Amino acid sequence: MNYTSILKKCVTLYCYKTLDCNHMRKSLLLIFFALLFLGCNDGDIIVTNFDFQDAQLQQCGDTTNSVFFKINPQVNESISLNIPTTQELFIESGTQSFILSSTASIVNYRGFDDSISSTYFCNPVPPSSPGVILEYIGTSGVARLISDTTVDDFDGIDFVSSDDLFQEGFGDFDGDGIPNYYDFDDDGDNVLTSQEIGDDPSNPRDTDLDGMPDYLDTDDDNDGILTINEDIDQNLNPANDIATPGGLPNYLDPDTTISVVIENYREHLYNRTSDGTIIIDNLVLVSSDAQITIETLSLGVIEQIRNETITLTPEF
Ligand SMILES: [Ca+2]
Ligand SMILES: [Ca+2]
Ligand SMILES: [Ca+2]
Ligand SMILES: [Ca+2]
User: Fold this and answer.
1) Window from 67-71, 128-132, 166-170, 230-234 with minimum mean pLDDT
2) Ligand number, closest to the Cα atom of 223
3) What is the pLDDT of residues 226-263, one digit of tens each?
């Protein structure tokens, strides 16, 4: 009896639903015991485990090639997904899809003769040891990279889901192209909202008592000079221009009306965080003598796959 041919016939496996790999494991056990029953005692029959449910999805790579991988240390197996792309991944909520093939975006399912660590995937040149004793390559399928992204300016004003220009939501009060909820200078006067709200965010400061809080008031002291132009040293920060020693900044002092023309916004900062989920649909894994088909394979989630400060200077 040719056990390799038995394996070829038997080991085309189907994992019908995400994480439904108990079915697969049972199938493999059946194959294994069937071979034992037939008197298997030689040859290089390798039984796959394919159990990555408890493994954490990890990431390596650079701006031109991202590698996502999971390792099952119990059986020294890994599954990895290489995505060679210069596209930025996980920068906004939504899905980016990549077609899998054995030459473009590639899935590898490997078994090793010894333990491996993340450095195996994070080295530009994979180490020659441990040795690969089992290898399947994904010949088709689609990898979905799903991003749940949030941005925040941490300006002290709570987010409100609203298009209202005066709310910390999707409205853009100063028209600089940055919605209020991640614009750290909501009125575009080059004084940060976090500075303009004062000591009590629930009762934002209103210096000239005109009913408009300073962080949404372009002439905070109502002296007829726009706050942005009360910037004598022209460093795009009116908060540090104080004509009266020990006094208020000029933009809050109605008795000081020195004006310069400023036609630039200061550089803006905000924070972006993304949780990344990866799902592979219709994955076909092929080795030299067997094939595994998986309808939906959830590789899992990497929380805060991005957590970064974005800087940009809006056009005036
Ligand atoms: Ca804005
Ligand atoms: Ca804001
Ligand atoms: Ca203001
Ligand atoms: Ca003033």
Assistant:
1) 128-132
2) 4
3) 999 999 999 999 999 999 899 999 999 999 999 999 99
Surrounding residues of ion ligand 1, Cβ less than 5 A: 172, 174, 176, 178, 183
Question: CB atoms < 10 A from the CB of 83, how many?
Answer: 21
| Spatial CA neighbour of 153 closest among 201, 194, 124 | 194
* Span from the CA of 221 to the centroid of ligand 3 (angstroms): 9
Report the separation in Å between the CA atom of 228 and the middle of ligand 1, taken as the mean of its atom positions.
15
295 token code pair: 């309808």
Q: Which ligand is nearest to the CA of 221?
A: 4
Per-residue pLDDT, averaged over 130-134, amounts to 93
How many C-beta atoms surround the C-beta of residue 69 within 10 A? 25
Residues with a beta carbon under 5 angstroms from ion ligand 4: 221, 223, 250, 253, 256
Enumerate residues with CB within 5 Å of ligand 2 (an ion): 153, 155, 180, 183, 186
pLDDT at 217: 98
Residue 16 contacts by C-beta under 8 Å, 6 or more apart in sequence?
23, 295
Q: What is the value of pTM for the model shown?
A: 0.78
